[in-house]
Structure formats: structure tokens, C-alpha cells
Fold this protein.
Amino acid sequence: MSDALDYLVKARPDALGHYFKFLKDCGKHLDPKTRNLISVITKVDAQTDRGFRQYLGRALREGCTPMEVLDALLMAFPTLGLAKIVWAVDIILEMDIPEFRVEALTSEGEWHDVMAASEVRVGEVTRVECDGRGLFVYRDPHGLRVYDSRCPHQATDIPHLALDGSTLTCPKHGWAFDVHSGECIKKGNTPLKRWESKVVEGRLMARW
Ligand code: FES
């Protein structure tokens, strides 16, 4: 939400409450993916950079695939026109979301060799790069967890420096995550993306 809307909600909750109820009600018969894709398109049409990043992040978190986002953009061509579609794709490229890379669009989800499993001790967390993707790897007494380094808010690539003990804080807007569980513990409400992982012959493998 913009700072202006934030302000109005606080200053005039009686009036703005109707507006937000209207927004909530008007998509209630749509499935979540369709609702999210339409929301993304509205932000492209209005060309609001921050809103587009936010709605795109939410659409991906709630199950839309990059191909579905691209389909929605292309289907809206008659009303958006090429310039707005290019504007949106430029932002997607700037966000550098690994799932949107051309080679990733057609892959079915492959196993990647991340590191020697023994490199992370119990209670430790480390950040590694693997095949173009940043990862945080955490080991608890039960095994290893692999999280994507991209913030679930607006896909900022969270650096190693953002780690303080077991808390990972995104430098962009301050969402904080507990690496024990991946849960967001401050500001936001969405956990880190966790990748499926396994150990094979001493190597940690992760699938995306
Ligand atoms: S991108 Fe906004 S908190 Fe990470």
C-alpha cells in the first residue's frame, strides 16, 4: 500500500474502510490465481512500480507461475499495449527473479548440487550461491533446510550480512525471518521460500 493510502486509512478509517471492503468483495468469486493475475494487470495498467512489484511477488507466492504471469500480460495486450508490457517486463528483469530466466521457464524442477552436507554444523546457517541462485542453508538436529535468498516481499536478494544470529533481516524494507522455521517474524507475513532438499552421498541437493 502507498504511504498516502496508509495515511488515509489512519486519518479516515470510516471512509476508507468501505473502499477496502469493496476491493475485498469484488473478487470473491474468483480463484486466488485469477484474482492475483488481474491485480498484477491493474498495476501494469496504472504503471505503479511499487504496486506492481508487490502484486507480482504476491502472485508468485500464492502459486502463479512465471508463465501464467507472462500469459496474463500478453492476453492484456489489446488494452495495455506494447509499451506497458515492456515496462512491466523491464521491472521483472530488474528484479532478476530466477524463475523468470528463460532457461528456468521450461525446466520442470531439477536437482542441484549445493555443497558438501558436512560443511554446515548443527545450529549453523550459511549463505551459498548455486547455479545462479542465492541460498541460505540451515542445519537443525533433524537435518538441513534450504531457503531461497530472495525476500518474499519484493524479491530482494538478501545478503549474508543480513544475518544476525538466527534472524535474517531484508535490507530493503526490514522484513525479518527466523531461519529455524523460515517464518517472517517482523513487519511482513510471508515466510522464506523453502526448497525441497536431500543429502546424497554426502552432498546436499536442492530442487527448484
Ligand atoms: S523486499 Fe521488502 S522487505 Fe524485502
